[in-house]
Amino acid sequence: MATVSLITGGAGGMGLATAKIVGQDHAVVLCDVRKDRLEAAEAALTDLGVVVTAVHCDVTDRRAVVELFETASGLGTLASVIHTAGVSP
What pLDDT is stored for residue 86 in this prediction? Predict the structure, then answer.
């Protein structure tokens, strides 16, 4: 079973940079509210060989967050949750 890291705000600068590092050892669930940036981040990570699952999610929506965690835990053992949503460098 895979080891999974979930990154909120994953399509932003800090989230994407974190995913590039964490993705060397873990499968990554990347979530972001901006679908266009999320798709671009997913493609960039895939090109780097990162196993990534992109989830369009607004972390202020409780129901969406429950679904996000269900997706992540369905992929393997959830090792970490890294919150970068709303954080800028």
Answer: 87
Q: Sketch out the chain's domains with CATH numbers.
A: 2-83 (3.40.50.720)
N residues, the chain: 89
Whole-prediction pTM value? 0.94
Hey, what amino acid is at 75?
Answer: L
Neighbours of 18 (CB within 10 A): 20
Here the tokens at position 37 are 């940036």
Q: Specify whether the CB–CB gap between 27 and 75 falls below 8 A.
A: yes
Give me the amino acid identity at 48. Answer: L
Give the residue-averaged pLDDT of 12-32.
97
Q: Where are the alpha helices (DSSP H) in 1-89?
A: 13-22, 35-47, 62-75
